[in-house]
Amino acid sequence: MRKRDILTPIGITVGFIMIMLAILSSGGSEGLASFLDIPSIFIVIGGVIGSMMITFKLEQIKLAGNIFKQAFHKHEQELYGLVRLFIQLSDRARREGILSLESEITEIEDKFIRKGFLLAVDGVEPEVIKDIMEAEITAMEDRHYKGRVLFEKAGEYAPAWGMIGTLIGLVLMLNDLDDASALGPSMAVALLTTLYGTVLANLFFLPMSSKLEAKTEEEVFIKQIIIEGIIGVQSGQNPRILEEKLSAFLPKRTLVKQKDPKDDSAFVGNGINEA
Question: Which Gene Ontology BP terms does the record give (predicted)?
Answer without folding.
Answer: bacterial-type flagellum-dependent swarming motility; chemotaxis
